């Protein structure tokens, strides 16, 4: 299927209309939303419908950059991952529903999107930043080959009020 990335445990795909209730429940959970400043909290069904429609439109146009993370065996939505911003050095972003933490799913999804960015989209460098207090996310990025290269001014303050955050970067090995 076009626009689908499969890994050992996961299927990265477009969002489906049937994902709406899981999307709202999972990303609307404060334990998830507190780390993802770009996601409004509380998260509404209207916002979820807009998000699903925009990702589906991107997938229909070819070479998508944003994906739903689903379990490969059930196709159940568990999170989201993607590349956004500067096409020359896009920023990697992801979230994972709290019931799915601790299963290595984030590492698997992040690694798959990095590989997709390099191999399919022809990107040479990918960056990421996190809330400075999100040690778990920083470990995921480091495990997936990104290096901590400094700090950046965040475009919006984190929910904890930080205005600067750690910057990570990985470049394609040629």
Can you characterise this structure?
- This protein is α+β, with helices and mostly antiparallel strands.
- The protein has a single domain (5-171), classed as Gcn5-related N-acetyltransferase (GNAT) (Aminopeptidase, 3-Layer(aba) Sandwich), CATH 3.40.630.30.
- Helix content is 30%, strand content 26%.
- The chain has five helices and eight strands.
- The protein has helices at 20-27, 30-33, 45-61, 105-119, 135-143, and strands spanning 5-6, 10-13, 66-71, 77-84, 91-96, 125-129, 147-153, 164-171.
- The strands form two sheets. A five-stranded antiparallel sheet has the order 1-2-3-4-5, sandwiched between helices.
- The longest helix has 17 residues, at 45-61.
- The mean pLDDT is 96.
Please sum up the structure shown.
The chain is of the alpha+beta class and 174 residues long. It contains five helices and eight strands, in the order ββαααβββαβαββ.
């Amino acid at each position: 299927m076009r626009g689908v990335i499969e890994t050992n445990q996961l299927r990265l795909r477009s969002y489906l209309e049937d994902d709406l209730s899981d999307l709202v429940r999972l990303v609307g959970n404060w334990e998830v939303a507190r780390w993802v400043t770009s996601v409004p909290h509380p998260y509404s069904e209207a916002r979820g419908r807009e998000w699903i429609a925009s990702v589906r439109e991107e997938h229909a146009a070819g070479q998508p950059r944003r994906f739903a993370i689903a379990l490969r065996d059930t196709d159940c939505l568990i999170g989201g991952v993607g590349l956004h911003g500067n096409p020359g050095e896009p920023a990697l972003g992801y979230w994972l529903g709290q019931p799915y933490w601790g299963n290595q799913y984030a590492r698997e999804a992040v690694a798959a999107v990095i590989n997709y960015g390099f191999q399919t989209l022809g990107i040479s460098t990918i960056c990421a930043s996190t809330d400075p207090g999100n040690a778990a996310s920083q470990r995921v990025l480091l495990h997936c080959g990104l290096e901590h290269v400094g700090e950046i001014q965040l475009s919006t303050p984190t929910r904890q009020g930080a205005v600067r955050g750690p910057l990570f970067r990985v470049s394609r090995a040629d």
